[in-house]
Design goal:
There is one protein chain. Helices cover 42% and strands 25% of the residues. It is built from eleven helices and 13 strands. The longest helix is centred in the middle third of the chain and has 16 residues. GO terms for molecular function: lipid binding. InterPro entries: DegV, DegV_C, DegV_domain_contain.
Length: 290
């Protein structure tokens, strides 16, 4: 039995099977389409990923909701009552208020359970970048490390969790305020594809623009070549917005360039996908810097 309980958000975009095998409790964030609320369960019980992206391609708009402190208290308290310590790894504070809700829940619960350790990390990560950081934490817990050791490793290494991604449709970035309407229109006409990353503050930041889809996918791999630490020894994650073939292409290029053996590919779930849209591809790995 694990020495402490590990929690995170559905924005990790890992599979339900991985969460179960690694004994990670994942809290589902909510998204709303056409006035109906859905929870982003990893197993897709409310709405599966294929259906979500089909709805978005048909023109539906999805709005997301962060977790609040009372939800987190209700989720974490039963574990504390059992006498286990708790470690909650939260979605980036640069993209959501969930981390701040988790801090409020921690403070409330610490008063009730002063003998228990309750840690909360602002991962400053998103999608399978958050998922990869949680994966490493879970592996260290399985290796017998204490909650203190795992927490400090995550805090020391989270800014080395690199996120590189590109989108196929600029209009989703326009709607989220990441680019202007004029830039979206001109970029679409010229076939411009932005390459973005998540910075040290956990914000999405455009880094470069390339012309053409294939070049944008190659750019993700080039950025990994420049900063990855011992890539052949790493497990890396790739997520996609209902474009598996493009994700497979990136995986193939990574294997060719850096001999990486272990690569997990999964969907970008509805919460992240509400803002990035169909056709997004993202690459995550440990590097010397973000």
């Amino acid at each position: 039995m694990p020495s402490f309980a590990l929690f995170s958000d559905s924005t990790t975009d890992i599979t339900a099977k991985m969460a179960e095998e690694l004994e990670i409790t994942i809290l589902p964030l909510m998204f709303t389409i056409e006035g109906k609320d859905y929870r982003n369960y990893l197993d897709g019980r409310d709405m599966d990923n294929k259906t979500f992206y089909a709805r978005i391609r048909e023109g539906a708009v999805s709005v997301t909701t962060q977790l609040n402190a009372s939800q987190l208290v209700d989720t974490l308290e039963p574990t504390l009552k059992k006498g286990l310590d708790v470690y909650y790894m939260a979605f980036s504070s640069g993209l959501s208020g969930t981390y701040h809700s988790a801090c409020m829940a921690r403070d409330e619960l610490q008063e009730k359970y002063p003998d228990r350790k309750i840690y909360v990390t602002d991962t400053r990560c998103a999608s399978m970048g958050e998922g990869l950081l949680v994966y490493h934490a879970a592996q260290k817990r399985l290796a017998g490390q204490s909650v203190d050791e795992v927490f400090h490793w995550v805090e020391d290494n989270k800014l080395g969790l690199c996120h590189w991604f590109t989108v196929d449709d600029l209009n989703h970035l326009k709607r989220g305020g990441r680019i202007s309407a004029a830039a979206a229109m001109v970029g679409t006409m010229l076939g411009i594809k932005p390459v973005l990353h998540v910075d040290d503050e956990g914000h999405l930041v455009p880094v470069e623009k390339v012309r053409g889809r294939r070049k944008s996918l190659d750019a993700l791999v080039s950025h990994m070549e420049n900063t990855a630490m011992l890539p052949a020894d790493q497990t890396i994650f790739i997520s996609h917005g209902d474009c598996r073939e493009d994700a497979e292409y990136v995986a193939q290029r990574v294997r060719e360039k850096m001999k990486v053996k272990t690569i997990f590919i999964n969907y970008i779930g509805p919460v992240i996908g509400s803002h990035s849209g169909p056709g997004t591809v993202a690459l995550f790995f440990l590097g010397t810097k973000r």
